[in-house]
Amino acid sequence: GLFLASVDLFFKSKDESLPVWVEIRPVVNGFPSSTVSIPYSKKSLMPEDVNVSNTPNAANTATKTTFTFDNPIYLEPGKEYALVVQTSSINYEVYISELGKKQVNSDSIVSEQPYLGSLFKSQNASTWTPFQLEDLMFVLNKCEFSTTPSTVFFKNTRPAANIAQDWMDVQVNNLLFSKTKINYAFKATNHDDLTTDSSYTDFTPDTNYRHLERKIILNQAAESFNVRCILSTIDPDISPWLDVTRYNVIS
Questions:
Q1: Residue 39: which of 23, 28, 50 has the closest Cα?
Q2: Which residues lie across from 232 on neighbouring strands?
């Protein structure tokens, strides 16, 4: 699979006030899904962020409009997806190609489809009509990840009172692939010596872990409990994925 970072579209015209948005949907029985979209894949732009042009060119940033997703969108291998463009205005026009017709500002004829996909049109984003000779002009920009490991640190928020810790269960929410890995380690303040932190120690998340000596999470501004995550991949198309809003520790 791969992670999708953004989508480039090419507009002929736009509305003066209403937005336009894109989203990624799974293909069901040959048609874009009418009810399901890939999480975090909806991205909306206001007219002032939309570029229009009479000479669309993928290499010219002035003629394209980039929809950058708030999070990289993971697309599974072997599955079909649809790029859906929607708006509540009739004033947006996007560039498409049609077999047998001339290219824009050129006498060259469109003689083949660049992709194996199909163009669908809909009035309500749920009932789709295929147009087999037409294709949308677009560019998909995928993420390219470094194969050098990267490190993320989590630190505790300040508790209402000191929390003694003999056991811990660090609960995580991540997505791993066969060519990726996350190494977890923790560092905490020693209960019997509040001036000394332990060194980082590897542990397995989502399991009960017993400390060799009692730790303490202090009621003070400085963090006294830290989790280190080392993310690595050997495939530049994919990366481990963390939901940073769903990490917590039970003491």
A1: 23
A2: 181
Residue with tokens 């056991």: 167
The model's pTM is 0.82
What is the rounded distance in angstroms from the CA atom of residue 84 to the CA atom of residue 36?
12
- Phi first, then psi: give them for residue 80, nearest 5 degrees: -100, 140
CB atoms within 10 A of CB 8: 19
Q: Exposure string (b/e) for 96-125, b if CB count within 10 Å is 16 or more?
A: bbeeeeeebeeeeebeebeeeebbbeeeee
The torsion of the CA quartet 29, 34, 36, 41, rounded to 10 degrees, works out to 110
Q: Among 36-45, 92-101, 196-205, which stretch is predicted with the lowest mean pLDDT?
A: 196-205
As given in the structure block, the two tokens for residue 152 are: 């993320």
- At 223-248, the pLDDT tens digits run 889 999 999 999 999 999 998 888 89
Sign of CA dihedral 117, 122, 128, 134: negative
User: How far is residue 6's CA from residue 157's CA, in Å, rounded to a whole number?
Assistant: 33
Give the list of residues 6+ apart from residue 193 with CB closer than 8 angstroms, or none.
none
What DSSP line would sit under 100-153, residue for residue?
TSBPTTSS-B--S-SSS--EEE-SSSSS-EEETTEEE-EEEEE----SS-EEEE
* The two three-digit tokens of residue 120, written as one number: 């669908």
Closest CA to 136 of 82, 96, 109, 94: 96
Query: By three-state DSSP, how is residue 49 classified?
Result: helix
